[in-house]
Design brief:
globular, Porin, 2 helices, 16-stranded antiparallel β-barrel, 5% helix, single chain, 22 strands, 397 residues, mainly beta
Length: 397
Amino acid sequence: MKKLLLVVAVVAMFAGSAIAADWNFYGSARVNTTYTKFDNSPFATPAAVAAGGSSAVFGNSGDDTSNYEQKLYGNARIGANVKVSDELTGKFEFGALGGNANIRILWGEWNFGAGSLGIGQNYTPLLMPYSNQTYSIDGFNKGDHNMSTFGMLYGSRKAMIRLKFGNFQIAAVQPRARVAVTTIDPGNGILYPMNPAPATEIKIPCIQAKYKYDFSNGHVALAGGWQTFDVVGAAKSEKVTSYVLAVGGRMDFGGIYLKGNLWGGQNVGNMVDILVSGALFSTLGNANASEFDGAGWGYADYTTATETVTDNDAFAGLLVAGYKIREGLYLEAGYGYVKTELDKDGSTKDDAVTYYLQSTIFLAPGVFLTPEVGRADFKQEGQPDATYFGIKWQINF
């Protein structure tokens, strides 16, 4: 928190000395209070760990637990929109992930007439933000989850160079080069994720694009992304190709709205968020949860013995419906589904779902709370599921 205050002070000093620029500051304070009941708890230590096996199999013990959580959301933020001229604008935003200041957005954009050129870190074109789910499902406390690993198309915020022409955008995006590496423990025959990941070579950026068509009571959006890299073994190199194709949209009917998206692809974890493995599930930030562990994050599988790659196919979607009861009082319900399956004979799907019901209640302009009840279910036998009730408290300033 001291780091965050220091950042704010430095930015304020800089803004005070900036020449011919309008700085419009904003902030959002967010705290969650949640009670969660777990089946096949991700917090219990399974027998394999007690016997000296890998800790990567957390979540398969069959124990049940209940937990209360209260914490500052990782997407609590402070930032500013900056206007130098009609042609030149910018934006910065710092978050509070882990209680420390972290760069969410640092962005500059130049409007050259026919379009605009954007440079910096911002949301990628692979974004369809159609859910307001607040519960933080994965173990990284990034804040409002919005089904970002459970069906929402979400490519995170990354360094990129973006061209935008009206409702069409295309970007060269910072690539991610990861595979799931597994090995068998000879002592018990259990398959464990293994770190660190093997060496990789990246020769081109990730390419992403999106087009949005607006009509009178809604819109339709199409998006896609592609990237490739090599995994370098001792004897040979293997190419890993990732792609994502998506369609989504929103329609409004008076006080009722419907939103949704469908998307799929291959080795999608290198571009968008997906989570199907219950062994990685933890709302308390289980120390064994890691973005490098297993194919549950949508990565291709790399076999060290043969130095071969098996592609990981994925499908996901969500449907959200909401109703404006009156000004300042809203209801929303949503359902999300994700599935991955390795592209080889004898493989089986690994899937998960989440669903929720919430109400957003405004107490004053910028002051609101969101009670929410829901469930997250990693559907394979022995994997965790959670039923939760909580309230997100938020003040925007």
